[in-house]
Structure formats: structure tokens, C-alpha cells
Design brief:
Layout (H helix, E strand, L loop, with lengths): L2 E5 L2 E7 L15 E7 L3 H9 L4 E8 L2 H12 L3 E8 L6 E5 L9 E3 L13 H5 L3 E5 L10 H12 L3 E5 L8 H5 L7 E2 L3 H8 L4 H9 L5 E5 L5 E5 L2 E5 L12 H14 L4 H16 L11 H7 L1
Parallel strand pairs: 1-4, 1-8, 2-6, 4-5, 8-9, 9-10, 10-11
Antiparallel strand pairs: 2-3, 6-7, 11-12, 12-13
Helix pairs in contact: 1-8, 6-7, 8-9
């Protein structure tokens, strides 16, 4: 496989537009409800498959109906899910997302089987044989905070594998452990809040400088409507967001990662790959769910 996405797998149930939670037993009618494959590994894998990139995913789900659905929908989109472990007696991670009219997305979340995903749940050859490994949500996969996993990443990189990482949460207590992965990465793609929390910096430019000092060749900090900051040893550049009508911001970070990865594999520069990530994220923001707007994404890749 060209890419392996390794980490968090979630089922999202989304409804829009939701202005308030009904009182008592009341019902509010909405325009749209969807259920999708999501999470920093599963969502990115689906987006990569939509872009035409061969991709396998590794993670953990429960032996429940939600796990059945998640694997089915990922496989239907073209993701190889043979590396996703089924955890007996555990629940598949899931989120309920009432999407506000402005695209905001409060959530109700159960982390489920993701918390126990560890080295014993996948074949190391999957990592060692990949052209690129994307770590999705290492802040929430506590069992991978393991020197043996870091050694596996280092072995893969020594053999030519590129390693990228995105995070899942904005929980301050999880950021110090996430920082331990930085010496084992080539590219780190946090959002603004995560970057500031990890570093304690006052600005994203200062945060990018501090993160680069930890080892990655480039740091790409997503800034929501402000686009992203792309920083390498040669300097930092801003990539503006596209001007679109936002429907739902769910999965935009995963889409940015997928576009960036696809761009790297296409031989583009870091900055040009970030521009492709921006375009893919804009497509997703224009619809409901983590894979919205990507039905013709292969054309997006070839046309960028």
C-alpha cells in the first residue's frame, strides 16, 4: 500500500441545521442527517481513497454493529481495512454532531476501542512497507505512547517511509504526550489551538518555530477560516483558505491532511501540497460530514 493511516476510527452521526436541543420529548425537524466514517485515521483514509490514493487503515473498533458499519463504509470507499482490529466486548468510537447553521460542530463523543489500540493490534510490516504512514489522533491512542512504537517509526523512516501526524482533540492534558512523537515525524499538521497548547507559544509563528525544533521537516498549522501556516527550516508562509459557503467544518482537518499527503506523493513541494490540502478541505466544508463534496475528488487532484 502507498499510504497507511494508523490511529483513531470513529463513526459520526450528523444532523443539520441544529440551533438548539429540543426540550423534553420535543422534536425539531432538520434538513439532513448523515452517518459517516470519521476520525483522524479513518476519515483521512476515506478522503485519500476518494482522491485515488491506494490506502490501508489500521486501528481498533468494537465487535458491535457500529464497527460493522464503519468497516463496511470504509471498504466501500476503497480503503483496505484488513488492518483494523475488532475488540471483543468494546464499543466502536462514535460521535453525535448537531451542526449549527454557521457550520460549528459541538459533539457528544465516546472514545471506545481507540483507547486500547496498541502494537499488538497490527502487523509492523504494514508500517515498514508503506510509502507514507499517517498517524491520526495519537493524543487519543494511549497504548501507542510506547518506545517500541517510536522505534518502529524510526525503522520505517530509515527505510524511506515518510511519517505524518495529525491530532484528534484540543484537550490540554493530552498535549504533552503527543509532543513525544515529534522527533519521529517528517510532517506535523496540528490546528492552531493544539500548536499553541503543545508549545505554550503566544503566536502560531512562534509555535511553528518551537515545533520544528523538535524534529519534523515541516509543520503545517491549520487556522480555520484563516487558512494555514506552512513552516520549514527555510521560513514560513501563509496559505489562505478558499472563499466558500461553509456548511459543516467536520473533517476539514482530515481532508487537509489527505490533500497534503496526496500532493506529497504526487511530487509537489510542501507549499503546493498544502494548497491542495486547502482545496480538499474546502470541498468538505461545503457539505455535511467528513467526506462531503469529494465524489469527483480524483479530478480535483489531477486538476490542481
Amino acid at each position: 500500500m502507498t499510504v497507511v493511516t494508523l490511529g483513531v476510527h470513529i463513526v459520526d452521526v450528523l444532523a443539520r441545521p441544529v440551533e438548539s436541543i429540543p426540550a423534553g420529548q420535543d422534536t425539531h425537524l432538520v434538513e439532513q442527517v448523515r452517518i459517516t466514517a470519521a476520525g483522524a485515521a479513518a476519515g483521512t483514509a476515506v478522503d485519500l481513497a476518494r482522491l485515488g490514493v491506494p490506502v490501508a487503515s489500521a486501528g481498533a473498533v468494537g465487535d458491535d454493529e457500529l464497527g460493522d458499519f464503519l468497516l463496511m463504509i470504509m471498504a466501500r470507499h476503497g480503503v483496505d481495512v484488513a488492518g483494523v482490529a475488532r475488540k471483543s466486548g468494546e464499543q466502536t468510537a462514535a460521535s453525535i454532531l448537531p451542526i449549527r447553521p454557521d457550520g460549528g460542530r459541538p459533539s457528544f463523543h465516546v472514545p471506545g476501542a481507540n483507547l486500547g489500540f496498541g502494537l499488538a493490534d497490527f502487523d509492523p510490516a504494514l508500517v515498514l512497507g508503506a510509502e507514507l504512514v499517517h498517524l491520526g489522533g495519537m493524543d487519543a491512542t494511549w497504548s501507542l505512547h510506547d518506545p517500541a512504537f517510536f522505534a518502529l517509526l524510526d525503522e520505517a523512516r530509515a527505510g524511506g517511509t515518510v511519517v505524518t501526524m495529525d491530532l484528534l482533540s484540543n484537550m490540554p492534558d493530552l498535549m504533552p504526550a503527543a509532543k513525544t512523537f515529534l522527533p519521529h515525524l517528517d510532517y506535523f499538521l496540528p490546528n492552531e489551538e493544539q500548536a499553541l497548547m503543545i508549545t505554550g507559544a503566544a503566536t502560531v509563528e512562534e509555535a511553528a518555530t518551537a515545533l520544528l525544533a523538535e524534529g519534523p521537516a515541516a509543520v503545517l498549522i491549520t487556522l480555520g477560516a484563516e487558512g494555514s501556516l506552512v513552516a520549514t527550516a527555510e521560513g514560513a508562509s501563509r496559505v489562505p483558505a478558499l472563499d466558500i459557503e461553509v456548511v459543516d467544518t467536520t473533517g476539514c482537518g482530515d481532508a487537509y491532511c489527505a490533500g497534503f499527503i496526496a500532493g506529497l506523493l504526487d511530487g509537489r513541494s510542501v507549499l503546493d501540497a498544502a494548497r491542495l490540502g486547502t482545496a480538499v478541505a474546502a470541498r468538505v466544508a461545503g457539505g455535511l460530514g467528513s467526506d462531503a463534496g469529494l465524489s469527483d475528488a480524483r479530478g480535483l487532484l489531477s486538476g490542481q
